[in-house]
Structure formats: C-alpha cells, structure tokens
Amino acid sequence: MAKQVKEIDLIIVGGGPAGLTAAIYASRARLDMLLLEDKVMGGQVRNSYTVENYPGFKKVAGSELADIMQQQAEELGATIEEFDIIENVKLDGEEKIVETEEFIYKPKALIIATGASPRKLPIRNEEKFAGKGVHYCAVCDGAMYQNKVIGIVGGGNTALEEAIFLTNFAEKVYLIRRYDYFRGEKAVLEEVEKNEKIEILYNEDLIAVDGEDFVEKGIIKNTITGEEKEIALEAVFGSIGHEPMVNLFKEYINISKGQYIITDENMRTNIPGVYAIGDVREKEYRQITTAVADGTIAALEAEKYIKKLNK
C-alpha cells in the first residue's frame, strides 16, 4: 500500500531541549508543524539526575525539566510523534522529503535536532559486556549496582556529576582519568574530591574489562609509566563524549571533520530552509541553554523562510 503524502510547513527531527524549544516557537507562530522523535522525548537532559545551571530552576531533575518543556510545547499546539522512526530523507533541490514508516512528508522547512549518542569505550570486551557491566547512562542503569564497586571513565562535567550520582548506590566509585586534570567545573570537581566514596585515578586509562557472565574486574594502564594492573570492578560507565547523529543527512548537508553539521550563526545549513540545532551542530559549547538558544533562532528563521515561500 502506498504511503500517504502530507505537505506541511515545518518538521523538527529530535525532541531534546533544542527541538522542543523550536516546537514552542513554531507553535506560537501558528506554523503547521510536526516534531518527530524516534526515542523518548527529552534527549540527553532526561538522563541527567539533576540540573543546576538552567535559569529559573535552582535545582531540577532532568526528567522533570524535559516533561515541562514537552508539556509547554503541546499546550501551545505542537504535534509530537514519539517513537516514530525516519526511514529516509531527500534534501536535494527545493523539495524536501521526510519518509517515516507510515507517511511521506513534504515540509517547506526542516530543523535537524537529532543530538548525539554516547561514544563507546575503546576497551577490550566492550561488546561482550554491553549491558552486563558496561553502560553509558548512570541515571538509567546505576541503581542496578547497589553496594557494588563501579568505575566511570571521563574527564568532563558529565563524568564528575555521574560519579557523584553513582555514590547513591555504589559502595565505591573509581573515577578513571587518563590525564592529571579535569575539564569540568571547579565547583563540581571540589564536590567529587570531598566525597569519601569516590577515588580519582589520575593518569590511568581503562583498557579492558573481564569476568564470566558479567564484569568482575577492570584492567587499567598508567599513561606515564605504562604499568598495567587489575582493579575489582562490577560495572563501568563511559562518559567520553558523544557522536553526532547525522547519518540520515550526510549525503546532503555539509559536515565538519568531527562529523557535526556546519551552520551559520542563524542555524542555516548549506541547504535553504534546512537548519541544525543543539548537540548535532558544530559549535564550541554544548549546554542545555545553548541548545535552547539554537532552537529559538532556528524556529524564527524557519518562520521567516516559510513566509517568503508563501508570498
């Protein structure tokens, strides 16, 4: 059976803070819009235990903040399709096509807010123990390891914050850092250093995990001396960055060496009427606040572009 074709003003791909903000502004502009999200709404912020740097909230659970954003967008009239998988896109020429399992959409404008997925740990046995001791979301999976010894690998704010969060469950948390410094905020690092459950392993690199059916130990290598040793470990969480979700669009959109979508300051890509926002976009800072700003700008630009087409 042929899929139904739907013409629409705007499609937003991705339901994190950037995409939801774009949906809020597009709805206020009374655009005929649709937000498509192939997973749960909220993006990475939903996996944040607490958010303390978003204006207006001294402290808020990431899941709560995501719910508030979604509710606001929907109350303004945004149409949101959750768990809707895009099968194909076509962006060459003026016509834009977004094909899902059920429909073929022809939007006048497209906003890409697909974000980024966690980068896998480059360690031996990563695939063997995926979900069996190797994880990438402390909020999602940390509670599985009550009174266990847990490792976390990374050097940014996320690694520091997740180390603190994991102490709610773990008997001990090793924070494994291949350098002798962290890139995170000083205040968060100070909180980590004061936590008796956390031991920082500076200049150490996790190179493997091992065990029978589940992770039982880790092998770390000193980045200065090259010495290797085993540590008791029942789980490890990777926090070493993210990979932008650009595969659907790479054929048409200009991509940086780091595989992020290149835009100008108004979120415009090389294709008129196509915008990129949030963590999928090439930029220096990736925060909730910068994602929200991106979403605002892209929606306003898309509104202006659509009005020109309608004249």
From TrEMBL:
Cofactor(s) required for function per UniProt: FAD
InterPro entries per UniProt: FAD/NAD-bd_sf (IPR036188), FAD/NAD-binding_dom (IPR023753), Ferredoxin-NADP_redctase_2 (IPR050097), Pyr_nucl-diS_OxRdtase_2_AS (IPR008255), Thioredox_Rdtase (IPR005982)
Query: In what residue span(s) does the FAD/NAD(P)-binding domain sit?
Result: 9-295
Alphabetically ordered keywords of this record = Disulfide bond, FAD, Flavoprotein, NADP, Oxidoreductase, Redox-active center
Q: Which domain of life is it from?
A: Bacteria
Q: EC annotation?
A: 1.8.1.9
Q: Where are the transmembrane segments?
A: none
Which principal EC class is assigned to this enzyme?
Answer: oxidoreductase
Molecular function terms in GO for this entry?
A: thioredoxin-disulfide reductase (NADPH) activity
Q: Which NCBIfam families match?
A: TRX_reduct
Family affiliation: Belongs to the class-II pyridine nucleotide-disulfide oxidoreductase family.
Q: How does it assemble?
A: Homodimer.
> Would you tell me the protein name for this molecule?
Thioredoxin reductase
State the organism named in the record: Clostridium sardiniense (Clostridium absonum)
Name the encoding gene, please. Answer: trxB
